[in-house]
Amino acid sequence: MNQHEIEGRGQTPAKDEPTQPQVKTYDRWQLFYLDRLHRLAGLNKDADAGLLDEDEVRMLRRAIFHTLLDCEYVGVSEEAKTKITVAD
């Protein structure tokens, strides 16, 4: 059925239909690193509250940094930056 036939029947053409929002899908490694970053960002709140000693804070910050690099490597750096920003 062509465009003219659709309009002649009183139906709206496909181009006028609302589109579904695009949902981003992630592979297992992307999810792994994003979940890890989310957990580490939560632990970072403990560090900011003074609940961790100096060595734990240093290890935590290194883990966050390297997880950000991993996120960049697997292609989810923008999502990772959002998680860090939201967690702060």
What this model shows, in words?
It is a single chain. Helix 2 (28-48) packs antiparallel against helix 3 and helix 3 packs antiparallel against helix 4. The protein has one domain (25-87). It has 88 residues and is an all-alpha fold. The chain is 67% helix and 0% strand. The mean pLDDT is 82.
Radius of gyration: 23 Å
The total of helices stands at 4
Secondary-structure content class: mainly alpha
What does the largest sheet look like?
none
Multimerization state:
single chain
Give the N-terminus to C-terminus distance in angstroms. 54 Å
Overall average pLDDT: 82
Q: SSE order in H/E notation?
A: HHHH
Residue share in helix: 55-70%
Shape: elongated
- The proportion of residues in beta strands is under 5%
Summarize the structure.
This protein is mainly alpha-helical.
Write the layout of secondary structure elements.
Blueprint: H1 3-8, H2 28-48, H3 54-74, H4 77-87
Helix pairs in contact: 2-3, 2-4, 3-4
Task: Please tag this protein with its features.
67% helix
